[in-house]
Specification:
Largest sheet: 7 strands, mixed
Number of strands: 42
Number of helices: 11
Distance between the termini: 47 Å
Radius of gyration: 31 Å
Shape: globular
Helix content: 10-25%
Amino acid sequence: MCFKLLMLFCFLSISASGQSVGEPMIHDVKQIKAVVDSARKNKPQERLYLHLDKFNYLSADTIWFKAYLLEGPYLMPSTKSGIFYVELVDELSNVISRMKFPVRYGLGWGNIGLAEKDLPTGHYVLRAYTNWMLNFGEEAVYTTSIYISNMGSVATKRAFNSGKKERSSMVKPNEGPYLTIRNPVDQPSVEVTIAVQDEPKYTSECYLVGQSRGVVCYAVPVNFNKGKMVANIMKEIFPTGIARFTLLDKKFKPLKEQLTYIDHHDQLKMRISTLNDKHKTQDSIALNIRVTDQEGKPVEGSFSLAITDDTGVKLKSETKQSNIVEYMLKNAELNRQSDDSLEFAKEWVGYNWKDILNTAPQKYKAEPEFLITGRVNSTFKGLAQAKVSLFSQKPLLIRDTVAAADGRFIFRNLPVADTTVYKIQATNKRGGNFLVTLEVDEWIPPVFKPFSRNDFVETDLQDTAFAKVVKNSIASRKQQEQLNGKMLNEVNIAAKKIVRGSYNLNGPGGADQIISENELQKEGKKTLYDLLFQKVSGLKIGSYVFPPSKIRKFGMMINGQLMKVVIDGVDADLTYHYYQIMDTADDEREGMQERYQFLKTNLEYFTAEDITGIEVMYNSQFNMNYNKKFLSTNELMFNKGGGLTGVGGVSGIDYAYVEVTTRSKKGPFMKPTPGTYLYKPLPFSLPLKFQSSGYGGTIHWEPNIVTNEKGEAVVSFRAGALPATYTIVMEGSDMNGQLGSVIKPAFITITQ
């Protein structure tokens, strides 16, 4: 891709007489370009696109995706952000889940499991963004619609209309001069017409500015004393994408604006081939991939590929979803007004002339990496040279730093982890914590406008081909389960006792005992401590020995297993001072009931009104995942029989876990300790390796295809167990400004 040099002037002709407009004011034109270039440099804009494996899912499916995060006019890998967020939102604007993913060199991939969310049938929205993108308005956020079937009947629903968003325009279409564009496909130039009728206030000079992706490609002064004016502007000075033409007055106020799409047909060419177009079920199939540029030269790049069963997946072209080329270059939010022009919309979303002139610092900071920052205070002012310590159990991490003169501190180069809770402790330079307070900068999720009626279109799925696709997908899954000897258990998930919003490591319903919100609503202000003894079967006060200590301690036990309390996914023992010491000297320092009293204080802080559910896990099938996450190395050393059975020792005592879900989702109560802070950031979601469900749907997903110097790559997969045809969708970038996308409908046929 190549931007041509700014045209400092061109000739505008009066269509009736052929006279030229006045002499161009080169100084002012250069000023426009300088202002725009400065804004683009100081506030580079990111575009985030998700390539999904498909757009319709069953409730037990997994959403697989690859993220392409590109920056600036040249669509290079973003250097601003190393983190992006993905939200699953229902049509009532409720955020079902919010996940955080790492992105490196503009690339990232991940997955979202749907099985544990108990979602009703209907349309949902995937929303993706970086923190930096929020500075440019909600229109900058990536959104796309998906359909989820909860194995039930296909209902009439409203589909999210990702192609239309409410936009405000600084330009009023029926006032002042008018500006029109003709963009014939077979002509090398764009014709821009400007006219004014009886508008004396526009007799002073204005400027016609042509931009693409935030770069000024064309700018000339315009004088309305000559009447109607026509400019023929060569398309070659613009890259492929939206060209934005704006009529500005001397105060940078836009008077009129229109957009048109210029296509040089210079995107990447992708070729996919196999030795045979027909294969047997369970065959191993190899795809040969070759990527070239418009001149046929091989291209190295990063690509993603989805292979789906046509029986149960709706084609991307049928869903009217944008591919990576359309989204990045044409912008999915634009509404086509005619065959060759786009009116009163924004090209690089969130970009307008007020933004250009605004030099104030951005509200939302870029996140190039995961950082922990904050400030140490003493009597309401920053505490210089304070020592700040950071502790994490899993992964095991101990870091120290010293606060700056204003008390600010920062921890860098932290590991990407999916379960981390940090304990931060600060002391003054003498090691004391008297009057020391600690503030940690918490990431605050953005609040988006609720969806309106205009965001959805009515779709009667019972009467469309899509209903058949969803039913086929369900039938295919049942057939596959039968082939595997596993009859599909058609239970009413809604009737299954689960705790919504729970952090249960076993998924919904994965517990020996569940106390639901309905049961808790009857208990009023009864404390959580009293509730547990009233509701949890087998809960008693007992004694135990924790090696290497030889002193017997007292605590709460369920069926003879020492009870651990986990509140909103956080181990309540995390802030217990003696929890990780386990030294023989501990026998003298820790009282026989000290841990019991610590937990009791936590449990008495909450009442039934604060809690939405309680889950109890004591059998190995349910407590194993908790042992893996919450037991320290020392605890695992004293397990029973070499298994993950908890404290064990001679008596072989296991742990039982109580997972408590609160309304606030803020975790356990902490007795305030000067200079300490329990920091629980949104954990990273790390990608899983794709495994085909075998029931149809997505047959194969490959998020990280890298072509070599010959532009070639090979992808292998195994065919499913049922006859079908497979469609292939491949997308990606050379990470140097060029994009590509290809769909191969029914490309492979599978027979018995």
